[in-house]
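REQUEST ID: PR-0412
SUBMITTED BY: lab tech R.K.
PRIORITY: routine
TASK: structure prediction, single protein chain
INPUT:
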Amino acid sequence: MYYLQNRWRLEGRELRYYGMRRPPYLFGNRVRLSGRKAALIASLPRDLGRREIRALGSLVGEQIVAEKELRRSPSGFDDATFCVTCCANDYIIPGLEFDADGRCPMCASAEKTRDLVAVLPVVESVPRSDRSEYDIALFYTGGKDSTYLLYYLSKKLGLRVLALTWEIPFMSDSARKSIEGAKIAFPDVRFVSRKLEDGEMRRVYGKLLSIAGNTCACPSLAYVLFYEYLVRLRVPYFAAGNEPVQALGLYFNHFAPRIAFTFAENKPLNFLLNAGRVLTLKPPLKTGQRQTLMAMNQLAFGDSPIKRIAGYGDELVSNIVIAISEAESVMGPFRKAVKRSSRSGHIPAFVHFDLNAICGGTYDWEKVKKTLVEECGWVPPDDGGKALHTSCKIERCKDYTQFVRFRDYKSRMIPFSAIEISLASRNCGRTKDQMIYEMKEVLGFTEEPPCECALMEEYGT
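STATUS: complete
OUTPUT:
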């Protein structure tokens, strides 16, 4: 008796793998089929004759297997298989494969991905501006990562910082207290907050809940709310406080190919793109400005067809783009601001600060939190085991819905927190047991919806 291997799905004349494959098949999640092969696979499980086995060719033994080779999905943490190096496991990442040494794909490819820091230009400082009263803007949530970057930009570099906060009904109590503490700790920083009108916010959340299963839209809506403001103030740079492993999450989720991580330094390609702008009577773009324009164009007008055809469509952002079209009072002005800034060249440069680098090599969570409490007025979450995401009440809901949708083949997106906590567990200064505690008790990888889902659904219905 032959079966289609667990986590492979027949979709028309393609096989799709819902999981993370071992190297060298890491990006081999799609197999195109002839009509004959598709028909044979659709007839499984059953016995196959020799001619049918020959017709399926190399699929036999990998995608098509005998019953004794059929893998089973674990029902929980207790029967999950864990990576020997990090805390990745095939419960929080259904379909996670391991190499012969027991390593997950993220650890098996660690050396090859060491240089993949960000899809944005990576900087450790920015120059003082003589055209704006601010040197840099920071999208600030009150969470661990953005607060540490605020500390670095303001206290360590002495920059004039504009801290921008998008107010959401799900902001954690500790984050709200941390923002108030930061206002005292950083008197030279200007703090600005904005929010959507309640009716529009509920329409956006309702649409997002219906298509994505959750209402998480950060930080995309913040960009929409503040972009015109940044352009008007001539702020030269802006950044977001991102955990070091978040960019790698894009890579392992097949949202960003390797070339995306070197795009900012690709001088010949950027020269050609700028030549195209000059030919259309638009000013050339500097490092970081192109990344800004690409990000804002995606939010304003959707994914480019080329990106979708290449198989690197970002499901997360694509869903948000659909949902935020419900907020026409801000989307209309935002689209106009994007077009005007493209014509004028007055575009703030989107840059990335590698938190590992600015921490001296390792972004140690415990040391960072100690600095934040002592220097920044930061208030940690009530659960001391929580460290991956600390600013939002519905992070567990996002984890849960992404987990369930991926597990049930309703989404091709691997839960982002599952990738991030696995990657972070290698060098964040916490033990494997501490990370497993956070996975089990803090994050949303559960069989039942977290209680916080009621709060999320209240705003999405």
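NOTES: Residues 328-344 form the longest helix (17 residues).
REVIEWED BY: pending
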